[in-house]
Amino acid sequence: MPFGDLHKIRNPGLTCLLICLLMIPLSGCGEPAIRSEPVTITFACPAVDEEDYKELAQRFNEQHATITVEINPTPWEGLDNLALDDVDVFVTWPEVLSGLQEQGDVLTVDPFIETGGSLDLSDFYPGTVELLSIEGRTWAVPAGVDVLVMFYSQDLFDQSGVPYPEIGWTWDDFLNSALAISGPDAGIFGYTTSGRMPNPSYFDAALFVYQHGGRLFDDLQGPARTTFDDPLTVEAVEWYASLYHEYDVAPTPAEARSAFGGGQYAFYDGMRHGKVGMWMGNLSERGGLSWQREWFLNWGMAPLPRDAQATTQADVEGYVISSQTQHPDACWEWIVFLSQQVTHRLMPARRSLAESAAYEQFAGEGVAAVARVSMEEAVLINPGAFAELGEAMDIFARAVGEAVDENLTAEEAMDLAQREAEGLGPLRSSQ
pLDDT, tens digit, for every residue of 140-173? Predict the structure, then answer.
């Protein structure tokens, strides 16, 4: 999710890094080395992707007689704390990658790219490779992209006689649909935010701000100060708050607990049980793919609605090589192979693959179309630039909550938030 917790994997690896870096020129880097002895490499992936990668590993093993890939399915939290002496290749994220690189736990892939010519970086969507680069060097190959989209309950739309959202739809379309679907007395709402109770992060409000032309920071890639009191930001928060207390199409936390259940996952229970018409979420969540909890509804998805502009957010996952591997060439061959495949959860990071008929057939024509359009509208944010902005975003979320609960007007809430954020001092960026 946007502005998520940042993690680092810290393992002693400086000595191993030096050894492995010395090994790279000897091993041929780009072109597959001719091996007289078979090798086995271990690949750690999210547990939710286990079946995908097992199938891909079988195909790879059949094509590469001297390399065997063993799949190590790992829970999300486990991927942030791997024992790297037991793993050769694994999946990671930009916010984790900085810690890996700092501790010498991963190999740069630049020598493989430059020597072998087996991977064309220009085919990847702009910004995806850059998010996996540090200090001018590339440390991972994009595994896929996770864009924020709008999910909707086809059942509730059908029951209300409302047309499904389409590519290019607007805030007005969104609000009209939410109004038609909502039945608060029956515990049905046209839209909801998400997040754990009792304090949702209101990440969706941040996206609406940028769709309206507002800003939360002076520069998304290298923020120096907050702009919570920007007039367009205030307007967007005022509109967002009106969804709760004027139009009554979205439940406050108290209403969500009452309508969907009293637990910390009340928002999510409302979504998956078909009591919510629309909600923002990552592409990878569709149908419950990354939840490991099935959605009990017929669902659809659309790009986020647009206002002054179309805006969404995208996150990138990447494949990295452990600095402790004894088989860097075999690891690279596996990564190149993976970069040419599609998987269920993520959108391909390579444009040629995302635009292919193979992706449409694999993901479904509708999903592929929405993913492509969303990617063209996406902002990819350097996590390093936001590494120290968690407190500022908490201030924003609390201010939105005050407006939603009608304790303050949007203008009062954002002015107060701006003063509080300025009290933190200048924002520091890693750039």
Answer: 999 999 999 999 999 999 999 999 999 999 999 9
Share of the chain above pLDDT 70, in %: 89
Express each pLDDT in 373-426 by its tens digit. Answer: 999 999 998 766 666 688 899 999 999 999 999 999 999 999 999 999 998 877
pTM of the model: 0.87
7 falls within a domain: no
- Please give the residue range of the domain that contains residue 76: 14-145+315-375
CA gap 321, 335 in Å, rounded: 9
Determine if residue 139 is left, alpha or beta; phi over 0 gives left, psi from -120 to 50 gives alpha, anything else beta. Answer: alpha
How many other C-beta atoms can be found within 10 angstroms of the C-beta atom of residue 333?
A: 24
272 and 297 Cβ atoms separated by less than 8 Å: yes
The letter for the amino acid at 333 is: E
Shared domain check, 396 and 249:
yes
Q: Dihedral of the CA atoms 127, 133, 138, 143 (nearest 10)?
A: -60
User: Looking at the domain assignment, is residue 8 inside a domain?
Assistant: no
Whether residue 261 sits in one domain with residue 391 = yes
Instruction: Judge whether 350 lies within some domain.
Output: yes
Domain count, the chain: 2
